[in-house]
Please model this.
Amino acid sequence: MNKAISWFLLGATLLLSSCRTGGVIIRETPLNASETRRVVVSIIGEPRTVSQNGREVYSRYYDKKNKNIEKMDMARERYTTHVTILGDRRPYDVQVEVLVEGRNVDGGFDLIERDDDRAAAIAEKIRQALNQSRDTRNVIDDFRSF
Model:
């Protein structure tokens, strides 16, 4: 009986420890979702895709030197930034992930790893831009009664 309980606890521990959110999270951003998305786009550049609700933004593919990849057939590795606005109301959290994809034998790309160091640098730029944007807002002109 004790062996069964210890196996169960070991399995539960492994299951719960394997669930980890990658990337970097910016907590309690001061702006609304559309302004936050505008700031994110100003930092990561023109997005490759945006989700239907506008809360997930994928950057264009780039290489190790942060240059856009022009010819995808020549690239062995590619990076993309995935930014998600979390929460249902203000203050929002913003999650930043940098995904590294490598070419597989079929010629497609598979996820290799997540680059948390690069994500932290991008998250810091976004955080600074969000704080600057908050300071330059005009409360009177930005107020909408409806």
